[in-house]
Amino acid sequence: MSQSLPDPEIDLLSPMLTQEGDVWTASFRGLTLRTALQPIYSISHKRTIGYEALIRAFDNDRCPVPPLQLFRLPESEGENLLLDRLCRYLHMRNYCDIQDQLNWLFLNVSPKVVTAGGLASSFFGQLLNKTGLPPHRVVIEIVEQPTDDPAKLRDTVAYYRELGCLTAIDDFGAGHSNFERIWNLSPDIVKLDRELLWRASEEPRARQILNGMVSLLHQSGCLVLLEGVETRDQAMIAIDAGVDFVQGFYFRKPALELDSFTREPIDLDELLSEYKRYKKVTHDPAQQVLDFFDGPFRRATELLEEDASMAGACTELLDHPTVSRCYLVDHNGIQIDDTVVSDTALRNRDPRFRPLESTASADWFRQEYLRQALAYPNTLHVTSPYLCVTGAYMCVTLSRAYSYHGRMRVLCCDILADNHA
């Protein structure tokens, strides 16, 4: 088979499709290809917002053939492109015939296939016209893997966007992925690799990384989809991470019965109610920290107002096993004197970070906890967990501003993030 497909491509592919009742199938190398759909849900909307189309192959005995085996069959770049286009044609024909006339259809395409077809090719435009599917209902998924021609990939993604389609990066967070492709392609949606979710369910630090990655992607202007959700705990992690959309076996498996999804809507209310209870009642560490330390912190600032020493004023705070250090900052964010360190922190000091220990005259004005305290004096504030620059450990910081001889000062206290009161 030649490396490029002759025009018009639609005329070449149409005879390979067959309608069986309300469903279309396709033939390739003696196999029957069928469309399976898996719903994608918006957590906030509490409903389906799209479906990922997946190919399913069957032999002459109607036995399933693994997708990996199917995609090993092409013997040339041209045939590989043919199979990719045949799958997309099949999916779009089937999707146009189901009752849902609102939501997105997610179509997978690898970077190698994307860059194999030239921009001069009008195949996908023909396909949109042939099927009547509006381009704004199509999401082109680019699998997150290396490509030999990133410039051509960028141009091709721009071509789909010019057609009116949305674009998505699939499997982001896999071993070779990075934010360079996000910046180069500016996708509308980023699908996070399921490995990130698995790690987040096993390791607390990985969960913090997941939350931070979602936040950074949002700041980059991307909606975020977390795939591979298989358990209730993983669903709660996805909700807590702030992702926009979820997909996975926990909600629905891919199905060949294409009209079944519109008959069986998902109920996310119970899951969201559980999450609210989880955050507000049982597992709200920020509120627990504020409630526990409000009294000791107030007493410490009162003593400082009376010219007590830092060591004397903060004795009650430093005696708590989770407290790492206390320090005082002026209204310009400059630290006054050196830090008062707890016995617990002294015993657990890591000598590798000794260059960071002394913070006399350090400038903390960039820190949100300082600006919050100065904006709302006499109120105790607490941060989310973050990496403390003085020792490279995870902590939360408590801060409270008070008046001292007509100037504002801020008492700050670092608490080990993994040992909340």
From TrEMBL:
SMART domains registered for this protein in UniProt: EAL (SM00052)
GO function terms (MF aspect): cyclic-guanylate-specific phosphodiesterase activity
InterPro entries to which the protein is assigned, alphabetical: Cyclic-di-GMP_PDE-like, EAL_dom, EAL_sf, Sensor-like_sf
Domain of life: Bacteria
A UniProt-annotated Pfam family: EAL
Chain ranges of the EAL domain: 16-268
SUPFAM superfamilies: EAL domain-like, Sensory domain-like
Protein name per Swiss-Prot or TrEMBL: EAL domain-containing protein (Putative c-di-GMP-specific phosphodiesterase class I)
Species lineage: Bacteria, Pseudomonadati, Pseudomonadota, Gammaproteobacteria, Pseudomonadales
